[in-house]
Amino acid sequence: MATSSASSASERNFISMQQMAMPSFAVTSPPSHGGTLSALHARHSQRLHKRRVHSQVRAVAQTQLQYQKLGDSDLFISEVTLGTMTFGEQNTEKEAHDIIAYSFDQGINILDTAEIYPVPVNKETQGRTDLYIGRWMQSKPRDKIILATKVAGYSERSAFLRDNAEVVRVDAANIKESVEKSLKRLSTDYIDLLQIHWPDRYVALFGEFSYNPTKWRPSIPFEEQLKAFQELIDEGKVTAMFAISVFRMRPHMDLWSNGVCACCKDSRPSKDLFPLAAWAKKKIDKIRRSFLWKGEENANGGHCLVNWQTVTRPKDLGGLGVPDLERFERALRLRWLWQEWVDDSKPWSGSELPCSDDDHLLFNSSIIISLGDGAKTKFWHHSWLDGQAPKYLAPNLFRLVSRTNQTVQKELRNNNWMHKLGRKITSATHIEEFVSLWIRIQDVHLQQGVQDTISWRWTNDGNFSTRLAYRIQFRVDLVEVCHPNNCNVGLLAYSPLAGGVLTGKYLDEATLEYVKLAKKHGLTPVQLALGFVRDRPFTASSIIGATTMDQLKENIDAFTSTPRPLPQEVLDGIEDLFKRYKDPAFL
Q1: DSSP β-ladder status, 110-112 and 146-151
Q2: pLDDT by residue (tens digit) across 527-573?
Q3: CATH 3.20.20.100 residue ranges in the chain?
Q4: What's the pLDDT tens digit per position in 204-222?
Q5: Distance of alpha carbon 242 from alpha carbon 245, whole angstroms
Q6: Contact, 117 vs 150, CB < 8 A?
Q7: Can 514 be counted among the known catalytic residues?
Q8: What is this structure's pTM?
Q9: Extended beta strands in 124-207, E state
Q10: To which CATH superfamily is domain 76-243 assigned?
Q11: Among 67, 102, 117, 470, which one carries the catalytic annotation?
């Protein structure tokens, strides 16, 4: 990158912005005054001088932006990040350059952009933000600028982002094309922080306020995305990437892949038709935890100081990929349930498998049954009737049945299921469930000579995968889990009005109370809000945006002029208001 030879005062300040501006005070040895009155006076004066010096140092530190390491990367970023999504739409290039210049003069060292900027997104202006930033950077030292940008997620409306594409995906080809184009627009040869703007899988975004089950679609595997990111890092085009656990894992990848993880993975059972005894699993986990923490070949006893529940999660879900024995055993048992369906040649076929109710529930939620002659499908236990098992559709009737393992073929022949229940129905509830079940069954037509088949919900080809059977046990996104193509779980919604918050009756009142709290402590609402976010222990940097210099100055000043940290009485006031006007997501 080109660097101007003439260094102005602002450029010198720009070059040294990452260092905290602290005054320099000469340290000299105090003179010896003996024990006289003048000596005591001199020592007292020295103490007062030191106090004034320390006070000055603290005062200067209070008025400077702070910097901190981003994760385990080598990036030290300012506590304020300049957002740029209005550059090229609401702001001209000159206004954009003035905003960037002022921000960096104040100590900001990180810019956040994206390939889709400016917003709103359209073909005519797309990429203009990057061009503005690139032209500003041409006369600045590149190594003093931390540049963050984002790869667009799945989009049918923004196909113009790619060459000859009908839809934008987050696969390896799209990621690499995105980075190459971003580098060209930004006039640089590397990006400091690369992020995925939104996921490849369907999520409610851009004006959608709820999950739409009809838009569910298969997504690009996260492993493919990470590999593409890593290749860009290896090529020197990207310094760091944003993804859960990547910052933590990369420096130790060789150790984990060749040492600890290899040892821990080898301790898992290769086959698990019969459950491993609880005492054995505890002993194995004790060895694994001890080795994971100590890193020794022979480790006995000791305490594991890592979060084991996090460690056993898959890597792309925030863990280290060390198998959880309970979940892995269940995945293997699901494999036997699968084979019981698809392969009659097994010597144990037809025998009762040692599977728990939870195993059967997860298996039935993970398969899609295509009914043929009904000879394999269990009438009560399998999810063959409108995607659900009759024992859940009619739980009170199920309790009346003595033989629950009969097939659909046998139970539908001559309406056997009805005859078996005939004299046992004694209540209105029984009648309601019976009628409901009977109505559903009227639409079922068996196909003689055609075998029942099943497909696995979690794979594109419908074939069983032990790896995915393990992974789905870590799925925590409630809406996605509830999707019929996923676990098909029904939600019992608690407090849908969020304790009254969603009625709107507290809306104006809450805003006024927070403004009053700010004024009470001599703060503006901006200082109160940004100061609170600034002081959260998990906040690395706050992205601010501004279309005018006045907005920009007020936002930056809120970080440097607001007491650091906010006084306890202010935090107590926020806590009290939060108890009265709760965030619906945390009720």
Answers
A1: parallel
A2: 988 898 888 877 888 888 888 999 899 989 999 889 989 999 999 99
A3: 76-243
A4: 776 665 667 778 888 888 8
A5: 9
A6: no
A7: no
A8: 0.51
A9: 146-151, 191-196
A10: NADP-dependent oxidoreductase domain (3.20.20.100)
A11: 117
